[in-house]
Design goal:
Oligomer: single chain
Largest sheet: 5 strands, antiparallel
Strand content: 15-25%
Strand order of the largest sheet: 1-2-3-5-4
Number of helices: 8
Distance between the termini: 82 Å
């Protein structure tokens, strides 16, 4: 195939030997199969901001610290330099997160190089040596769904213990390799200390519950997100902790019916005051 323009710098720098073909095109990047030192690897080419469909970046960048004050000020503005630095930080987040999670024992692809906006990664393969499929492309039995669900929950715990929330954890970002499940696509990773981290963490786990619960309906009765987050917030979470999948909210929940009734009454009173006496 014709070499994509964005991969030419890697060829010129001898980071890759040639391009085998395109593996996939996602919302924030295109992934190519490349050959480097005789080994097939993946080259993730990040799309320009205007070409991405994944644009809700504010909720994912909250809490990220920029060490260089000049860069931080520029990124707050909308100058050409600031936009360039925002893009670099957006892309570099995945590289740093992959190294951090790999060190924490999370099953993620090994990053090999990051050059000119292209991330060179280990190729994740199935038992036959082919590109590993996403879980979204695999038919699972109820037994497999229960087992895989527990594996991913444990991985989510390890990530949280490392201070990271995936931000888009679903069947589309989990590969079924010959060595088990591998979590991919992390440019939208969120710091666990961010104000909105729990909401994103809960959404991640609800997506998993919805997927695995199709073949194993009992999974839909679990509430790991709140159980795990409470343990994390109380400083009791660790990778090997036993979980129940249950959570009892001791706080008093609002009676929605009563609240709506009060709103209606207040609205009627306001209307009567506006009309005045008959």
């Amino acid at each position: 195939m014709k070499t994509p323009i964005r991969l030419l710098p890697l060829l010129q720098a001898d980071l890759i030997d040639d391009v085998v073909g395109q593996l996939q095109s996602g919302k924030e990047a295109e992934v190519y199969l490349v050959r480097a030192e005789g080994v097939i690897r993946c080259a993730k080419v990040y799309k320009e901001a205007n070409d991405r469909t994944f644009k809700q970046k504010t909720q994912y960048t909250e809490g990220r610290k920029i060490r260089n004050s000049r860069k931080a000020r520029a990124m707050e503005g909308n100058s050409k330099y600031g936009r360039k630095e925002r893009e670099f930080e957006w892309q570099n987040t995945e590289v740093e997160t992959l190294y951090l999670l790999a060190a924490a024992g999370v099953q993620v692809p090994q990053p090999l190089a990051f050059y000119e906006g292209v991330l060179l990664l280990e190729m994740i393969v199935d038992r036959d040596g082919n590109p590993a499929p996403r879980l979204s492309d695999v038919s699972l039995t109820s037994e497999q769904s229960r087992a895989f669900f527990q594996v991913v929950i444990r991985q989510a715990v390890r990530m949280l213990c490392a201070g990271i929330v995936h931000g888009d954890l679903s069947e589309f970002n989990i590969l079924l390799s010959h060595n088990g499940l591998v979590i991919i696509d992390l440019p939208q990773a969120v710091q666990a200390t961010a104000n909105n981290a729990f909401a994103i963490f809960e959404r991640d786990l609800l997506q998993l519950v919805a997927f695995f619960g199709r073949a194993a309906p009992e999974i839909k009765k679990t509430n790991y997100a709140k159980e795990i987050w409470q343990l994390y917030r109380n400083g009791k979470l660790h990778p090997e902790i036993e979980l129940t999948g249950q959570f009892t909210d001791k706080s008093k929940s609002a009676n929605v019916g009563e609240v709506l009734a009060e709103i209606d009454e207040a609205r009627e009173e306001a209307l009567l005051k506006r009309r005045g006496p008959k």
